[in-house]
Amino acid sequence: MNTSEPLVRVENLVMHFPIYRGVIRRQVGAVRAVDGVTFDIQSGETLGLVGESGCGKTTVGRTILQLYRPTAGKVYFMGTDLTRLKGEELRRMRREMQMIFQDPYASLNPRMTIGEIVGEPLLVHGIAKGKELEDRVAELLQLVKLNPAFASRYPHEFSGGQRQRVGIARALALNPKFIVCDEPISALDVSIQAQVINLLEELQEKFHLTYLFVAHDLSVVRHISNRVAVMYLGIIVEIAEKNELYEHPLHPYTQALLSAVPIPDPVAEAQRKRIILEGDVPSPVNPPSGCRFRTRCPIARPICAEQVPQLRELGSGHYVACHFAENSAIA
Questions:
Q1: Which pLDDT score, from 0 to 100, does residue 262 have?
Q2: Cβ 82 vs Cβ 95: under 8 Å
Q3: Residue 31: per-residue pLDDT
Q4: Bridge-partner residues for 76, per DSSP?
C-alpha cells in the first residue's frame, strides 16, 4: 500500500441510530448501521464502496463528512480529526469536502434556479457575489457540459442526467479536494450513466480530485475505482486493489457478489457457476454473533459464531475479514 499520509483516514468508525419507544421516548435499542469501519483513501485515488442495499455504505459517506456525527471512531482529513471539530472550524473544513447525492430529483431545491443552486455554496462561504458569482456559475456549468444559459431555469425543466450534472457542478463550486459520490448514477438511465462516469473521471484528472464512490453496480465500480472495499451489514469484509479483488476474491460474500455480475461472453457465462446465498440479510438492530455473514455463508464453522474475524492482510494490500480466507473458494 501507499506509505504516504492518506488524504482521508477512517478508524473504527461507528454510527448507531437509537430506537425510541413510548411517550417518554425511552431508548430500547439501536440500528447498528456502521459498526467499526477502518480504511484510508490516498490523495487522487478513487475508493469504491460496494455492498447490498442497507449495508451502511451511504451512512459511511455521510459520517465521514460529519453530516451524521459518529457514535465512535475517528475521521482524519488532511491530518485533522473531523470528529473533534464543530462550528466555524468544521464549516471551514467543509469547503474541502463535498457530496454528490444519489437522487438528482430530490437533491435540488425546486424553488431555486440552477444558477442559485450552483452558486449557493459560494454565497454561503462568502467567496463570490454579483457579477463574479454569475461568471463562476457559468464556468461551473460549462465544466459539466451544460449551457451557461440554463442558469435561469428550474430543476423541473431538466432530465435526470442534466440534474445530476447540476449536482456535480454544485459539488465543484468550492474547489474541494474530496468528494463522496453516493450512488451518483443509480437513478439515471443506462444510456446516461456512462456519460456521467466519464465526466467524473475527466474532472478527477483535471482537478486532482479524490473520490469515495459508493455503488452497488460492481462493473461500474471496477471501471472507475483504484481500490474496492466490500461492506456487509455495517462492516468491511474485504478491501483490495480492484483487479486483485475481482480476479482473486477471498471472502465468500465477495465471491457471491461477483458471481452475479454478467460476463459479455456467452461461453464463459454458460460455464461459470452462480453462487446463490441462502436466507435474508439479518437485521442491523440485532446482528449475528461472531462473523456477521455466517448465517448465509456456505463455509461457516462453529468458530464463526464465537469469534469476530479481524480484517487482516493476505497479500500486498489485500485485506479480508474471514477465518477461512486462505481456502475460501466455494465449491
A1: 73
A2: no
A3: 94
A4: 9, 81
